Amino acid sequence: MASPNTGQRQYEPIPEQSTLVGRILGFCIYNKLVVGLVTLLIVAAGVYVAPFDWDFAWFPRNPVAVDAIPDIGENQQIVFTEWPGRSPGDVEDQITYPLTTALLGIPDIKTIRSTSMFGFSSIYIIFKDFSFYEKLVQGKDFYWTRSRVLEKLSSLPAGTLPTGVQPTLGPDATALGQIFWYTLEGRDPHGKATGGWDLEELRTIQDWQVRLALRSASGVSEAASVGGFVREYQIDVDPDAMRAYGVGIDEVYEAVRRSNIDVGAQTIELNRVEYLIRGVGFIKRAEDIADSVIKTHENVPILVRHVAKVVLGPEPRRGALDKQGAEAVGGVVVARYGANPLAVIKNVKKVIAELEPALPAKAVVTDPAVTTADIRRFALEHGFEAYDGPGLNQPAWLQYLRRTPPSSWPAWLTRSQVAIVPFYDRTGLIYETLGTLNDALYEEILVTVIVIIIMVMHLRSSIMISSVMPLAVLGCFIAMKAFNIDANVVSLAGIAIAIGTIVDMGIVICENILKHLDEDPPDMPRAQVIHRAAAEVGGAILSAVASTIISFIPVFFMTGPEGKLFKPLAFTKTFALMASIVVALTIIPPAAHLVFFPRRINSRYLRTIFYGCLVAAALLLALAFSWLVAVVIAGFAFYQLFKGRIPPRMNALVPYAANVVVLLAVGLLLTMHWEPLGPQKGLIRNLLFVGGLIGGLMALVLLFERLYPRILGWCLDHKVAFLSLPAMLLLLGAVIWLGFERVFAFVPGALRGNSLWSAGVHTFPGLGKEFMPSLDEGSFLYMPTTAAHASIGEALDV
């Protein structure tokens, strides 16, 4: 490969430059335009799929699915069957057992569990975890199992289930699908809770308006209703009247069933015009059922009202919803399998915002001291009737409230609008999960800049190395989207763990490049120097990272819940390390050539325009993001503009002064974002703590680096004494992990009765074991348990 600097002294190539890594490095160094375009593509694709809630109106986004915790549940499908009024024993014998035996023939079933309750049966079909080959080649996934269950249910032999019983398949969701809970409440124009709505009204609004609207939101699998009373027509028969009229209960049942039907009767022609004839039997009121004909006796119709009383009443219920000690009506939104929970919640909230203005409203009298006469008098003064039957004349009162400003309403009257009030929203927990990674990345970049400036005293290197981290993370997001890995607290932890290794690769390459630039003759082509320096360490970096990646291979073969829990971490750590290798070997070397040896702008006019635009960009940055970063950029631009007018001695001190200024600016940014002592301690104390902490650690590192030859010589001369230290640390770690008693189990029982043994056992009991880490959502879960035969009233009292 020829160097573009043919007039300069040529470098003697080293063997590493002829390897695959060396050839890749050479291509990237001499083809910077291609590398720059690929970098821009990676940045654009990474921003396109990044899980953070970045709102770019001008840039479309399709983020990685985000949730708080990984879904470690089984591949499960639920078959639900209702048989009202039947005992659990009958349900078990005639519903659960026949269905379970029929469903056993479905392929790839792991186990089947069932529950028989009063009036319904639930069957849980758990499938095995499919391998990557089965998913990719055979197409076996969550929806494949649903199709197999539906095929089996549709092909059940006649007589398997009782007449009229129809099993249904549960929603296409998992156990973590419940992402949003809400209640329906009456609110006044100021957003305060008001009464005026009973549980039956709210449940009707929930079933026929809210639930159907929320089901239309993208990504929603099910919107279920909870609490309140479901309205139904109740027919209370009179046995004596039935005996007198000679009517049986089956005749009453058939009469009611036939009454709610519209019947077509062809057409009739009158005056050359055809008219459609139909019998309208749709029931709208309880009186329509009461007027239904059971039969005729001597040409006299016997109606339902003659033998029964028809009323509106609540359906028998098996559960209730309680909020702050009072019954409430609400619902739960379940996200579809594979959908992005954060996006689904946003879609649900968008539907709620569109739906709420159309929900019912009513006029409510809030002051119990106001009499009926006062209300009638007020209504007559404004030209309408106050009451319509036992309740307020709602159309007239609402019309008055709409045309009158709220400031003119009487103190005892308000407008109560049904509102959807969330009481569980996973958005907050998801944003906290994303904020953890966002804060870690930001603080890691700032700490990296500080450490590199102190260690290398080279500002351009520190900025260039710090850019490796966000590029590698964006590349990791691209891989997560391609392999359908959700962003959650475990998968994002893999990225956070890999951050240190990502920075190390950039430091190794940059430090070797700077070393070669200092040691090699100045007439050597700079591109060849950088190529040789990067090739020297490129193979070692690749081997070091490859060994880390290979060590995670066993995690990819884990199965069951533990595999679902830890595989995302292994995937993201591997993606981040692979992306960091690509960035370190393909972007840092050409970037070093550009940053360390920028092309000079010979035209004074062009230089003025360029750095003037840089100052303007700094001002915009100050308004949009950080004034501190903007001051540093503006200072750099002003220095480049007036560099020719600065004395040579001062020019020689400018790089050191720039390092100090940037060091202080980055330290201030880190302090303002981190605030380790808390905001109440003030900026100065936090800044002193951060400076002391980082400065102290760096002082120890520099001291160790200077004393390392002496320390190494002493260790080699006193091998036994030195090796005793790691042996003691290994023993202490085992005692802390496994426990004092387990590690020293070989000690005879006669020696265990002393105070030393007792102190060791109590001080080092061993680390606890827990499958799932504790997750603090900032809320408490109160779950009282009652006896199985406790009534709903008793459960609500508890």
List strands and helices in order, with pairings.
Blueprint: H1 20-30, H2 32-49, E1 75-82, H3 88-103, E2 109-117, E3 120-127, H4 132-136, H5 142-154, E4 168-169, E5 178-187, E6 193-194, H6 199-215, E7 220-226, E8 231-237, H7 239-245, H8 249-259, E9 263-270, E10 273-279, H9 286-290, E11 293-297, E12 300-303, H10 304-307, E13 308-314, E14 321-323, E15 326-335, H11 341-355, E16 361-365, H12 372-381, E17 387-388, E18 391-392, H13 394-403, E19 413-425, H14 427-456, H15 459-466, H16 468-482, H17 489-519, H18 526-551, H19 553-556, H20 560-586, H21 588-596, H22 604-624, H23 627-641, H24 648-674, H25 682-717, H26 719-738, H27 740-743, H28 755-763, H29 792-797
Antiparallel strand pairs: 1-3, 1-4, 2-3, 5-6, 5-15, 5-19, 7-15, 8-13, 9-10, 11-12, 14-15, 16-19, 17-18
Description:
With 798 residues, the protein is α+β, with helices and mostly antiparallel strands. Among the domains are: 1-62 and 426-599, Multidrug efflux transporter AcrB transmembrane domain (Multidrug efflux transporter AcrB transmembrane fold, Up-down Bundle), CATH 1.20.1640.10; 75-173, Alpha-Beta Plaits (2-Layer Sandwich), CATH 3.30.70; 231-314, 2-Layer Sandwich (Multidrug efflux transporter AcrB TolC docking domain, DN and DC subdomains), CATH 3.30.2090. Strands 5, 6, 7, 14, 15, 16 and 19 form a seven-stranded antiparallel β-sheet that branches. The protein has a four-stranded antiparallel β-sheet with strand order 2-3-1-4. Strand 17 and strand 18 (391-392) form a beta hairpin.
